[in-house]
Amino acid sequence: MGMPKFGRRALLLSSTMLVGALAAAADAAAQQSASASTDMQEIVVTGSRIKQAANLTSDSPLTTVDSIEMKLQGTTNVETMLNNLPGITAAQTNAQSNGATGTATINLRNLGEARTLVLIDGRRMPLGDPTYPYADVNFIPGALVESVDVVTGGASAVYGSDAVAGVVNFKMKRDFEGVKVDYQFSAAQHSNENGDAQGVLKKSAYPVTIPGDRFDGFVRDSSFVMGVNSPNNKGNVTAYATYRWTEPVTQATRDWSACTMATTSSNEDALATQDNQRYCSGSSNSAYARLRTNGSGTGYSLNPDGSASFVKYNSALAFNYGPYNYIQRQDERYTGGAFAHYEISPAFDVYTDFMFMSDHTKAQIAPSGFFSGTTYSINCDNPLMSASEATTLCGANAGSASATWKGYVAYRFTDNNAPRYDDLRHTDYRYVIGTRGDLGGGWSYDVYAQHSAVIYNETYQNDVSIAKLQNALLAKNVNGVATCESVISGTDTACVPINIFQLGKISSAAYNYVYTTSFKEGSTTQDIVSGTVSGDFGAWGVKSPFAKDAVAVALGSEWRRDAIDLKYSENVLSGDLSGSGAGTTQPAVGATEVKDIFGELRLPLVSDQPFIKDLSIDAGYRWSDYNLAGKANTYKASLNYAPISDVAFRGGYNHAVRAPNIIELFQTSTSGIGGALDPCSGSSPSASLAQCGRTGVTAAQYGNISECTSVDGCNTLSGGNKALKPETADTYTAGFVFTPTFMPNFAATVDYYNIKIQDLIGTVPTSQIMSQCLNTGNSYYCDLIHRGAAGSLNSSDGYFITTDINAGYRQQAGIDISGTYRQDLEDLGIKDLGGVTLKFIGSWTQFNRYQPLLHEAKYDCAGLYGSTCGQPTPHWRHQVRVTWNTPWNADLSVNWRYIGGTSLDNNSTDPSLNAGSGIYNNIDGKIAAYNYFDLAGTINLMDHYTLRFGVNNLFDKDPPIQSANDDYVSVLGTYGNGNTYPGIYDTLGRTFFLGITADF
Fold it and tell me: What compartments host this protein (predicted)?
């Protein structure tokens, strides 16, 4: 079983290369004299496979966060800690509800999770689940993290595909000896005193409860680590187990999220005299129902007084779905595993890793029901309708047995008190077995095989069947009893008529009939066989005459197989789910293979000479052969120059590759929501007839097209593409490291980066599709708009086409700055008070350019956010921590997190960003700069115990409020939730934590 899993050809390839390399290394060792050997502590720096002296610096920009920082932040989930770093933008987090994948992912440089490679001790993490195949850092046990290295210079030549934006490498605690037990409790305290939000709530057209002060969001986290050395100290086993429980928090608990905000926008020309107004928008999929024959007009709703009659729909009858949604998901997680190794001989150190995670999370959103966009039929002699209602719908045909009303029905099932639950479960495994050793003469090797699997199960509860809803609307009077036509005909004898014609009259039997549960299940697997040999040529005397170190190399090969298997229940396959974005979906099955050969070279040129303390060149190359995407070459080169010990300059170039992943290749066409809103819909479209005509709207349809009622946008049709080719990226870096001898305990780095990704794999943003088609009539964009028979983009046959393609480019440039400083207070004349440590990390984004299609419009998202640019990308972010290291076994620390201000992309005059709406949003136009302050402390007690405590977001600062939409533009996008961006800004309020570690 093992050999087919990892692949005989791959193992043979790796073994063949290694045998030759090992033989050469052994010959070199035999020729080396004993007098020539020296002992040197060597380490492996993230971003290279060549071992180097511990005092050398990385040739690429590198940020390291240690376990102490995790403790001071009070974070036991690593994504929170990483998302606080200036160079990382939050992606999937525990704050997602609608659209949650149940995973936690890392988005370096805001270039997307697909372009960030995540490693564990230099080896790949498991793929994410088969719907979202990006490394899930929930898998990482925080208790075992020694440090995290973030390399931002590109590293595909070293690690292979995906390291376009960079690499995040989790370094785990190994060779642990003893027992360590840890427990932490945290909770949020929030004062609901947001005057702006409460002003909106009080003016709401429908009743909204203003929440009071809260103490909630409880998280309990515990871990157990045990390690033991072998009696001869040649081996070690380190085992761990962790448990985490997270309490759910709903949007109803915060005044800024208690309703879904929207903005009425003014024309830009009138901005000076007309202010925008924010209001509680709600959903026209109303708890009072809404029936319309087409997209025009307001339609009819049930009379709020409970009588069997219709009234004209108005905004007071909209449904406030916000309070149901989670802003912190319920989550329960177990992890466990062990790292072990035993040195049989210096040349044969056998090691193995086993890691496991079981994660169960629930996302709650508002109840399902009838959703506008699907056309339903109601027979005009339906006995559940009153005569008044029948007349309203059918006119002169009221009561006719042969007449039928057809139109859109929107009706939330709120009286059943059954919100929708997205129940997500992930079970992850990762096995590694390998051997490494010292071959003598400065040469070593490492060969390993790795298998990982992610088993995914998703159950979507309390949705309803479109087919059953339709059956339940067609009812006849049979002996005084309302009976489904399908029961009479025998086509569906289980049908129960549904009474949507009077409030609160839907029977339990009808609910039981229409409610349904859907399923998704599947897995991703990854198999790797890899081998590397590294060393230097000191034995041959191969070195520069001006350098003290010899030329060093690393050579290796790797085989990798990624596979996906995703299946759906029949109601998902057929698109029968009313509350899940009606549309058909097909299973996804497939696998990719790649064979790599790679090498690195370190060439010291000059050392310890006047004005040249160190001068060296690093280079790397990788040849890859993908079974579907073809062959690719990646390479790098860098120069390191230190004129004196105090300063070192570094600069480099990386040519990186990202091959299409298993979702981008094998996902079949899937309908969903999330596209731009439609400026050609409604009774008064914001776009002209001429503009809308370019998008496929006829003169008869203009003014009669159904709006996309979901704030998440119009329908999309997405899918993979087996013809995709790899992305390529060119990264340039230049910077310096400053460690002045005249200022001990100080170090600083400044690095410039410029990353340009071409042949971009992705989709054209739907806002870009709409704006370009409206404004230019470009056939490429207009062909991506597929209007339904009635012109709608909110129906099963109306959607934006968002299939993956190789298209334009993305380019980002900026500067990273970091620094550390330690000052003993005694040196300042302050005795017996310990010292102060300062740590600083900052990132400036110069530009973040995006061109969806070559030779077409491009735009810059630096300093912007919104429907096209997504989450905020401020020009500047930083984090500053000052820690007082007292002489009393205690540390006190304050942390300052700064997030620069940003502006709404839709306000731009650039037609690529304003979605063609011509609307200027003053209320949502800017997010001011944000300052968060955190306090933390640690106390060592009785040698074996450490108490830690702290409060994050000390001043209980509310996140910025952003409207879910402003007229026809969806502001928040994919990662928005609860009127804000929860992965970037603190949402729960002031958060306290208390933890204790027992270490024996």
Answer: Cell outer membrane
CA end-to-end distance (rounded Å), the chain: 41
Per DSSP, 587 falls in state: -
Q: What is the DSSP letter of 228?
A: E
How far, in whole angstroms, is CA 974 from its chain's centroid? 9
CATH of 2-164+173-261+325-366+422-461+533-566+587-667+721-763+809-851+857-999, one of 3.40.50.300, 2.40.170.20, 2.60.260.20, 3.30.2010.10: 2.40.170.20
Percentage of the residues of the chain whose pLDDT score is greater than 70: 91
Residues in the chain: 1000
With the C-alpha atoms ordered 637, 643, 648, 651, is the resulting torsion angle positive or negative? negative
pTM: 0.87
**Residue 102 backbone class (left: φ over 0; alpha: ψ -120 to 50; beta: rest):** left
Rg (CA), the chain: 31
CA dist., res. 184 & res. 142, Å (int): 12
User: How far apart, in Å, are the Cα atoms of 358 and each of 106, 427, 677?
Assistant: 20, 5, 38
CA distance 560 to 6: 8
In the chain, what are the domain boundaries?
Answer: 2-164+173-261+325-366+422-461+533-566+587-667+721-763+809-851+857-999, 284-318+369-412+466-518
Tell how strand 261-264 and strand 277-280 pair up: antiparallel
DSSP 393-449: HHGGGTT-SS-EEEEEEEEE-TTTT--EEEEEEEEEEEEEEEEEEEEETTEEEEEEE
Nearest 10 degrees: Cα torsion 778, 781, 787, 792: -100
When pLDDT is cut at 50, 70 and 90, the band that residue 33 belongs to is very low
Nearest one of 749, 861, 753 to 813, comparing CA atoms: 753
Per-residue tokens: 200: 């909106």
Identify the pLDDT of residue 52: 67
Per the model's pLDDT, the better-predicted residue between 358 and 685 turns out to be 358
Q: Hey, CA dihedral for 209, 214, 217, 218, is it positive or negative?
A: negative
Task: Write the pLDDT tens digit of every residue in 888-921.
Answer: 999 999 999 999 999 988 888 787 786 555 567 7
What is residue 153's three-state secondary structure? coil
Inter-CA distances, 824 with 418, 600, 819, Å: 61, 42, 17
**Cα-Cα-Cα-Cα dihedral sign, residues 372, 377, 379, 384:** negative
Q: What is the pLDDT of residues 76-105, one digit of tens each?
A: 677 888 888 888 888 888 888 888 889 999
Starting at the earlier edge strand, list the strands of the sheet with 261-264. 277-280, 261-264, 965-966, 969-970
- The encoded tokens of residue 940 equal 């060592």
| Nearest Cα residue to 787 out of 852, 720, 719, 715 | 715
Q: 513 in helix, strand or coil? A: helix
Close Cβ partners of 153 (under 8 Å, ≥ 6 residues apart)? 47, 60, 61, 166, 652, 654, 731, 733, 751, 753
